[in-house]
Amino acid sequence: MTENFQFTLKKTDAGARLGEVSMPRGTIRTPAFMPVGTVGTVKAMYLDQVRETGADIILGNTYHLMLRPTAERVARLGGLHKLIRWEHPILTDSGGFQVMSLSGLRKLDEQGVTFKSHVDGSLHHMSPERSIEIQGLLGSDIQMQLDECVALPAEPKEIERAMEMSLRWAERCRVAFGEQPGKAMFGIVQGGDIPALRIRSAEALSQLDLKGYAIGGLAVGEPQEVMLQMLETTLPVLPTEKPRYLMGVGTPDDILKSVARGIDMFDCVMPTRSGRHGLAFTRRGKVNIRNARHAEDMRPLDDQSNCPASRDYSRAYLHHLVRSNEALGGMLLSWHNLAYYQELMQGIRKAIAEGRFADFMAETQEEWARGDLQPV
């Protein structure tokens, strides 16, 4: 823990990086997975449980929180940390992705984006400066620049236009952020699936000397190999001494392959969203607990896990809860999935420290490929 934002790269193992982000509110061990707490809650989870799974940091969403309960109200109530009872670091995204994907009506220009709320239809304007202001009112520790995220596939001219706009907005966000001891603002590399644009974006953002850099506009429907190619293109251009965050990723396999290429931070709704729909991620791969084969299986999802949801509840009970649409089913599976993700990250960090990440990756993938336990 430190009074300033500081990233320490402790060890590398081929492309994989072991590090640590130190901030006043705590230390983030990297590679790190950040559970998504969109509206101030990691869905179906107590934050005490989230912490117990091994999470050092969670993510909040600027777009959703500015609409309700509003950033100004959160500030009056003492900030997001106090409101939700989470004393550790919080990263807030800029709201740009949600504006592009959720709002039915939007108008984008150099000044920002005007959009209609998906909640009540009210009109709002989000400029780079307003995005940073909102994140400041929320009290987040790591704030993201406002960017324009283009859905793929898209025309090259449209991808280039959005990338250049995002660069200009990054400069305005940096000015608006100013100097905030102990906090950080990250830039976001855009450029779609065009290597030359990704390189231009990364080079320009590097010149801004920000505290960290994110890779945005991926995991939006393109094949995994395209995402990995863009990482291989982009990461060598970014400063090695700054943390690298791949936004919105992803599956356990995505995480392993991205760590191998040098990513330090991840976030994704997948573990909790999948849990609410009856899908579990395990050491043996994905398990659809809705399937009839689990109806009379008294074995747990994972008897080796430290997580009570994974170890102490039978598949038969989880199957019953999910098929009955009981809330507890989604709660237990979300808990299990978040615990599995954090166990995976712990294993990744240990393997890098021991210089055996490639072996760990191969062993993990082999265990996934063997599949689930045989039916009883």
UniProtKB/TrEMBL annotation:
Q: Name one GO cellular component term.
A: cytosol
Q: Which residues bind substrate?
A: 93-97, 147, 190, 217
Give the EC number(s) under which this enzyme is classified.
2.4.2.29
GO biological process annotation, one example: tRNA queuosine(34) biosynthetic process
Q: Which reaction does it catalyse?
A: 7-aminomethyl-7-carbaguanine + guanosine(34) in tRNA = 7-aminomethyl-7-carbaguanosine(34) in tRNA + guanine
Keyword Protein biosynthesis applies = no
List, from the UniProt record, the residues annotated as the active site of this protein: 93, 267
Q: State which pathway it belongs to.
A: tRNA modification; tRNA-queuosine biosynthesis
Q: How is the quaternary structure described? A: Homodimer. Within each dimer, one monomer is responsible for RNA recognition and catalysis, while the other monomer binds to the replacement base PreQ1.
Q: Record's family?
A: Belongs to the queuine tRNA-ribosyltransferase family.
Q: What is this protein called?
A: Queuine tRNA-ribosyltransferase
Annotated source species: Rhizobium vallis
- Name the gene for this chain: tgt
